[in-house]
Amino acid sequence: MEEKKNPLVNTCNFSGGRPIMVDLPYPPIQVKERNRAYADLLSVDYCGAVSEMSAITQYINNENRLSHEMCQMAKTLLGIAMAEMMHLQKLGELICLLGGQVDFTAKMRNGRRRMWTPEYLNIPGNVQKMLSADIEAERAAISQYEAHMRVIEDCYVNAVLARIIQDEEYHIMLLQSLLKDCREIS
To answer: How far is CA 153 from CA 6, 16, 31, 75, 168, in A?
Structure first.
């Protein structure tokens, strides 16, 4: 078998990549007491249709598809994905402290359980639509966190959710800037 003389190579270098998030500390991960209902609510944020699991997977997919042509944008999406991974980890800790179980199953209020699926993702081919879908997903996450904060009467849990929202708002600002740059290029 003859080797190809000029292999295809992705030259986008991700070394030194860091989570892209607001430069503020997170509150301690603690809860007032065990509360399975709160753990179930957070399971939706963890791995429901609108969730950190969905965000991570969507950002990584987008980063993979863009890295060979739009390296800087891909690096930004990877940094956002890394921040979402930290959110996932913090939610998982809270779920466990509240007496819940981290098993990639969202526990709905009606008693239904739904395991995470890639069907939750929005993966358009066009870069502008991709960024718009990411912005909408961030907005939906913020709305869901705010709704959960209205139900959860645990100041420790709500402090963590409020801090996560700050990152999500920052992500929207970055994504809007990327989208604006794309529109100016087109």
So the answer is: 61, 39, 10, 38, 22
pLDDT tens-digit series, residues 130-162: 999 999 999 999 999 999 999 999 999 999 999
99 conformational bin, left if phi > 0, alpha if psi -120 to 50, beta if neither:
left
Task: Give residue 75's pLDDT band: very low, low, confident or very high (50, 70, 90).
Answer: very high
The chain-wide mean pLDDT, for the chain, equals 94
State the Cα–Cα distance between residues 173 and 151, nearest whole angstrom.
27
Query: Are the C-beta atoms of residues 3 and 63 closer than 8 Å to each other?
Result: no
Of the two residues 7 and 49, the one the predictor is more confident about is 49
pTM: 0.93
CA distance 106 to 114: 5
3-state secondary structure 79-126: HHHHHHHHHHHHHHHHHHHCCCCCCCEEECCCCCEEECCHHHCCCCCC
What Rg, from alpha-carbon coordinates, does the chain have?
Answer: 18
Q: How far is CA 26 from the centre of its chain?
A: 16
The CA angle 28-29-35, to the nearest 5 degrees, is: 135
